[in-house]
Specification:
The complex is a heterodimer of chains A (174) and B (157). With 174 residues, chain A is of the alpha/beta class. Chain A has 4 helices and 7 strands; from the N terminus they run H-E-E-H-E-E-E-E-H-E-H. Chain B has one domain: Rossmann fold. Classes of the chains: A alpha/beta (174), B alpha/beta (157).
Chain lengths: 174, 157
């Protein structure tokens, strides 16, 4: 029902809809993911105003035609309902437009997804690692990363540059 | 009124070595480097039920420059490891380290990309206290073991 409404409005931006575990899932065209998210948020009958989660799955061992799947979880307080928006991304260019402009919560969620999976969110003003340290190479939640391979950090990560950026107004809404 | 009034004009003789060690081991000032559940358990060690002050170690300092016992309580990640090292380096000699719990002793079940597999990869450790988290009695046992260790050290040169 949500998927049909989105498809009626946005056409082939919504590739496929289905229901999983009682949640409607919208498979969308990666380049148009923000259009779909904006529609779901701003349509008064839907009002999915809350971005709960942004995360990814690495399908390298699952034989998917495209390696990564990014999932957005939205919640509508009006409907007391959740919806999942997913987009498949190829290994060669795992890129998506950022939802930073729509939700502040997208900031850290997208940074985490970038950090752990290497998904690039274009238009994010501060796409740097969130959980792993600055000297870390690779993306640990990718299935081809050796899970036991730790990486040393020689100097403590300094957050002062982030604070100074925020003070200078370079990071919107910090 | 100080100690000298009790002693009046008496003279106590001892070895310098013994006097210094007696002072050191019975007045450990711990600095808790608490990052996880072990730090909660350490609160129990300090409070009245178990009472770490029975062993002279109740002066918990949150500055490495004022303490001589670094009590590392909780999981240490690779991101935290250089911070722990800096804290250790900021402590004055003589100093001792207790690794409290399974995480600090060897990484515990966090055998993964982000967890340091034991703090002895980064700083020297004197006493390892097993447990997840250890019972307060185990921590007190660790402190007693450390006191024995201090007693075996050579002080006078």
């Amino acid at each position: 029902m949500i998927g049909e409404a989105a498809r009626a409005r946005l056409g082939d931006a919504v590739r496929e809809t289905r229901a999983e575990h009682g949640i409607e899932v919208l498979l969308v065209h990666p380049a148009r993911v923000t259009d779909v998210l904006r529609f779901l948020r701003d349509d008064p009958a839907l009002a999915f105003v809350m971005l709960l989660d942004v995360t990814a799955t690495d399908g390298i061992q699952l034989g998917w035609p495209e390696r990564f799947r990014v999932a957005y979880h939205l919640y509508s307080m009006v409907r007391n309902e959740r919806v999942r928006v997913i987009a498949n991304l190829p290994e060669a260019k795992p890129e998506l437009p950022s939802a930073f402009g729509m939700w502040k919560s997208a900031d850290w969620l997208e940074r985490e997804t970038y950090d752990q999976y290497g998904i690039v969110f274009t238009g994010h003003p501060n796409l740097v690692r969130l959980l792993n340290h600055k000297d870390f190479a690779g993306h640990p939640l990718r299935k081809d990363y050796d899970i036991k391979k730790g990486q040393w950090l020689s100097e403590p990560d300094d957050l002062m540059d982030q604070l100074e950026k925020a003070r200078a107004g370079l990071l919107a809404d910090y | 009124m100080g100690l000298e009034t009790l002693l009046e004009n008496a003279v106590v003789t001892t070895r310098l070595d013994a006097a210094i060690k007696w002072g050191r081991k019975n007045s450990l000032w711990p600095m808790p480097f608490g990052t996880a559940c072990c730090a909660i358990e350490f609160m129990g060690v300090v409070s009245s039920m178990f009472d770490i002050s029975r062993f002279g170690a109740e002066m918990v300092r949150f500055s490495p420059r004022q303490s001589d016992l670094l009590l590392v309580a909780g999981t240490i990640s690779y991101k935290q490891a250089p911070i722990l090292r800096r804290i250790y380096e900021q402590m004055c000699e003589p100093k001792w380290v207790i690794a409290m719990g399974a995480c600090t002793s060897g990484g515990a079940f966090y055998d993964n990309y982000c967890t340091l597999q034991g703090i002895d990869k980064m700083i020297p450790v004197d006493i390892y206290v097993p447990g997840c988290p250890p019972r307060p009695e185990a921590v007190l046992d660790g402190i007693l073991k450390l006191q024995q260790k201090i007693d075996r050290e050579r002080v006078a040169r």
